[in-house]
Records
---
Amino acid sequence: MAWNLDSDRPIYAQILERIEIQIVSGVYKPGEKIPSVRELAAEAGVNPNTMQRALAELERHGLVSTQRTSGRVVTEDMNMIKETRNMLAKEQIQEFIQRMRELGFEKEEILTLLKSEAGGEKNE
Amino acid sequence: MAWNLDSDRPIYAQILERIEIQIVSGVYKPGEKIPSVRELAAEAGVNPNTMQRALAELERHGLVSTQRTSGRVVTEDMNMIKETRNMLAKEQIQEFIQRMRELGFEKEEILTLLKSEAGGEKNE
DNA sequence: ATTATTGTATTATCTACTTAATACAATAAT
DNA sequence: ATTATTGTATTAAGTAGATAATACAATAAT
């Protein structure tokens, strides 16, 4: 799977966000071990230091923990995972509405546009 | 009005986007003169070089043009303005749907969430 | 004619991010 | 016991963005 990293924002931040999404959407399950720093760095095509930074931050968020030499595992706190998912969704919704308002669109208009656009794309 | 610049993305890019939005949403009208580089830089609290870069890029997009010493004016091509607005809106919609899908939300769910969130905030 | 304002260019410095190349301690695997 | 893998730390170098301090040419305003 492509990592789709761009140069608009710091790479470590994009990686952090991506793995966070993979956890809350179930790609990495509660209690599951995630690949090593070196492995993920190779997969993403970034320097191990950059991946280490992203994972260390992710750990600060509480979604993963580390056992020194055995690697990192996803938290088993399913409630935290669920809450994180809801929080991320809420952020997306708020930001989307605000940006559309800045462009001069009203509530109903936004809903109408969404309805007509939501059916068009599947996976590309 | 606050410029709300953060350190997540390059400042010049945020400024570029902001002024673009101001043009397509009618804050700056077709043919209207926009403030000088130094003026805008002071207002935004950034270095004139940074503002110059943002405006030069904006000019590349075609939304403003410059007459050497009299300053910059917004294009009078209302069609271009309208099309830019639609393009920006479409981008927002596509990105929003994609991100919500990555979080594991389905079409109907997204619409439902939007409906319940869209009434909650006005201007804060 | 003089002055002020315009966009623009230049050079230097600072900071954050990224890569590179190692190294080390802890421990799981053998 | 030895080896390989783990997260982690360190030092150096490169790059992009932002600021600072000027400077200049063109022209609108006086």
---
Amino acid sequence: MPNQFDYQKEEPIARCECNVVHKDIVDQVSNQMPDDEILYDVADLFKVFGDCTRIKILYALFESEMCVCDIADLLGMSQSAISHQLRVLKQSRLVKYRRDGKTVFYSLNDDHIKTIFNQGLEHVLE
Amino acid sequence: MPNQFDYQKEEPIARCECNVVHKDIVDQVSNQMPDDEILYDVADLFKVFGDCTRIKILYALFESEMCVCDIADLLGMSQSAISHQLRVLKQSRLVKYRRDGKTVFYSLNDDHIKTIFNQGLEHVLE
DNA sequence: TCTATATATGAATAATTGTTCATGTGATTT
DNA sequence: AAATCACATGAACAATTATTCATATATAGA
């Protein structure tokens, strides 16, 4: 008959040296937790928002579609740096682009982004 | 009388080697941009969300208040690692805590956090 | 007061990441 | 075709950061 301490006997927790104080809660939360993979993707998404240059780029694109060179000038940074960051934003599907001759115009991919940003801003301004 | 090109004469833009294609847009967006300090804080906030361990901790606290040891067990990580991350979450005012004897219970600080997480989740699941 | 337990924290290390530099690619113009 | 412009990208370097290990602090109980 398994009880709340059985798992400690069978497989000692190497990583947490203290006792589980509330096994019922841990189990309940454990069942509710989304898959690791999903949580990993969520963290990865927020990691993209977690850089000042990228936040500025996103904010800029709230206002208007812009080309790489415009953004570089706006932020006072090299074209290369901006291009690298746009790549990251592209990979996370936060921005999309269209080519017009030699110029590439970037814009926001959808409106979640604005919502996420605004919630973050609200928290910071509180 | 300053004009739109003056700053280029006085202090050449070392960082962006290409021409500004759309000065009107750059100026307009530049005026709308919040202070650097605010955007820096917003990025810093999202940086906190941008780690898998912290995202899991936050998600766990959506479900229930938990003590450090419970969280460590839930995530299969060391107490020390969790404690360090809780410190980060505390500093960003994302979690609060109450002490009950030897145990410290952590919980979410406000509801922005859930909203931010859910928006991120929606984006990822699309 | 002494011991045990839950948590916090400083230092060290390994891994990740943002920018620069140099160069490559695709489109336009002459 | 050659030159030029806008942008992309690989490699390298510096800075940041997550975890571990060792140890410190705070509370409870004997």
